[in-house]
Amino acid sequence: MLLGELSEAFGVSGQEQEVRDLLYHAVKDLADEISVDTIGNLIACRKARQSAPHGEPLRVMVAAHMDEVGFMVTGIDNGGMLRFAPVGGIDARVVLDKQVVVGRERMPGVIGSKPIHLQDRDEPGAPVKFENLAIDVGAGSKDDLEGRVSVGDVVAFKMRFCVLDTNPSGLRAVMGKALDDRAGCALLVELLKTDYAFDLYAVFTVQEEVGLRGARVAAFAIKPDVAFVLETTICDDLPKKVDTTNVTRVGDGPAITIRDRTVVADQRLVRLLVDTAEQEGIAYQFKSPETGGTDAGAIHLVQDGVPSAVVSTPCRNLHSMANLMSLADYDETLRLIRATLLRLGPEDLRR
Amino acid sequence: MPVDVEQLLRKLSEASGVSGYEVEIRSIVTAAFSESADEVRHDSMGNVIALQRGVGDMPRHSIMLAAHLDEIGLMVTQIKEGFIQFDTVGGFDPRALLGQLVVIHGRCALPGVISSRPPHVLSAADRNKVIPIDQLYIDVGLRQTDLEGLVRVGDLISLKQDFLRLRGDMASGKAMDDRAGVASLLVCLDELTRVRHLWDVYAVATVQEEVGLKGAITSAFGLAPDLGIAVDVGFGHQPGVPEAETLPIGKGPAVAIGPNVHPKMFERLVKAAKDYEIAYVTEAIPGRSGTDAWAIQVAREGIPTGLLSIPVRYMHTVVETVNLKDVSRTGRLMAAFIAQLDGDALDAISWKLPSVQDGAAS
Asked: B185 to chain A nearest CA, in Å?
């Protein structure tokens, strides 16, 4: 399935080519115009095929980011071990004892840890730090890697996408790396298969994880009237001692953002999403406001402002190797955004 | 037919077999032993015992080679809100568990991942702390209602990892401790099919080493061999660990020396390595070896025992990294040692009292 292929593709922020090529082939027959801009965003435009009741069709931007968090090689030891730093926000603790893929050659490697038998008494409680870690590709020496691995090469987690549960009435959970935001990309491809009463600018953005960089540039060029961002969002739904918010829960349907750390979602669009969900019988949840940032944070401030909203599929273990998501939630997220877009009209942007 | 160590180790590493529940790995190893053994059987503990007979006159001496079959794993302790809590079977650093893939061996095999709360929701202080095992949960992506009836307290959980070939002769995967040792036994038995050896050779894939050397205790008693050699993994050199505490990688097996090893066994292993030009290093073990050798040495009336260690980086994690040539060298060294066992060998290894002439005053 496309989601699985996208999950396994290599595309750390700044090096999204492989993902872009995959998506290009997925959308080339669905779009009227396709281009790549200077920073690397893939922009696929599907013109209005239903007649707009009043004047010019709206320009609607829907964005999902192609890049995944990963690492960058910062040095190569004489012994052939690679020193590295994170690209995007990664908790060092989830990096221990994982398989990775390095650079242009997609060289396999592992990030190891010190056997517990050899640790000093105070080590087991000590925080994990990137500067103490290394990627082992099995090189005998630095010379062994001459011309094959360089400082600046990017590194991604290595994980095979898998389906955990096929029971049609269950969560239909899937597991893989980079579901943030390849799930959003896969949904965006699906959206291009429908006719709308507006010009749809499907933008597969770059470098979201290092500062919402691609989205800003794409939105400036497109000048959309309105923007939706398709993302994944964290769940805190493991058993907890203290009764605090879950942020979102897997199995409760698409999550609508009211506010996150980068944007206050446009109230009109939030109301449209909620009304659509209620009318279509789509279970939904609100994402709790304290955390996270998305491309909407950049898009809404571009030109003289763009009304923006975010719809997310809940996903456990974001920014680590094995993200876990429900295809039931994913399907409902698609249903919600497609139904919302089909209802969307200029009257929704009136104050 | 020379053994393809990479393919063999891939199969052994990826199979599940947590201490006490070594079912899957046992059938794979039994089939593999059958290719170069005259007989293969299981004892009451589940040890796999392969016999390759020698051609010496009866009563024939025997040597037991041991490598352990079991791997460290986890066990279900509680099922809560659709997630599974667990405890460890064998020794784990909790930091090595976060985010790892597992399989729960319940009513059916359930793949999942070891998870904890997202760092975004934790305080800055908590974000740095090691997450203890009682705050880790296994997520198999099922609702509580779907989980009941599929998983029970006490179900075994094995870690799941693809074998990964790295550069050079290096490879990485789970359970190299001690599937690398088991692979070396298979290399040895295969080599011996082309050698006319006098002694009987018992190759034993032992169970429950990680929880107390139990398979070694009972199989050594049962076989009552004249000599024993255990093969396990040793700490391979890795960044951040002083070289004096580790073994070089790619320089062959380490031949252990210390109280757990009979000095004559050490000497004969080193002699075999030199005679056959097999690369080796020496490993100083001043006390407990933490291997089956500790049990074999004191079985019955005592068995002269040797110990070989295959260097492995990142021990007791799912990215244990080993040099494939070291695995085959270890197998060939044991075969070389066995080829040199003649009718006088046992006598030469035995301790002697000083003779009357030696001790006499002038």
From this structure: 24
